[in-house]
CDP-archaeol synthase
Amino acid sequence: MLTWDLLNLMWIACGLFVAGVLEAFLWKTPPFQLLNFPVQKEWFGENKKWRGLISLPLTFMVSVFGFQFLESLAGINPDFPIHFQDFKAVEFGLLTGLVFNLSELPNSYIKRRLNIAPGEEANIITYLFDHIDSTYGVLILWYFYFHFPLHFISVGLIATPLLFMGATWLRKRLGLK
């Protein structure tokens, strides 16, 4: 079950990854250039912008539609407890994208109060919180609102921060961060 939960988690995470790629293109469009200003600079810093709060929910919704289509073409793995087809794309996409972004705000607020610069890894504690805030927020949503199985969420509590740390390491190695 652990292996299937991990593979299933990576499948669902692919949807968020695709949404993040789509988001980068969306930010370059004129409507999202208008939203390229901080939500609340004094509280959250320069990097938490309105365009991000709005774009990730939209792009994840589109991504969910795309992954539902892929599942319908290829069939769904019966060993996975979670499938994109299990959800209404608009509801699942918008809520997950919004909660992902909103879950970063408390961490940003605390870091600004401690005079830690955005993206700065001051110590192991801030490094860990930078990699668990969004993912844990989404896992909480998935468990309580979408009723994902507890065994899946339990795997996610360990795996998602590790996946996020690996992605951060890779982006740094590639010069993307």
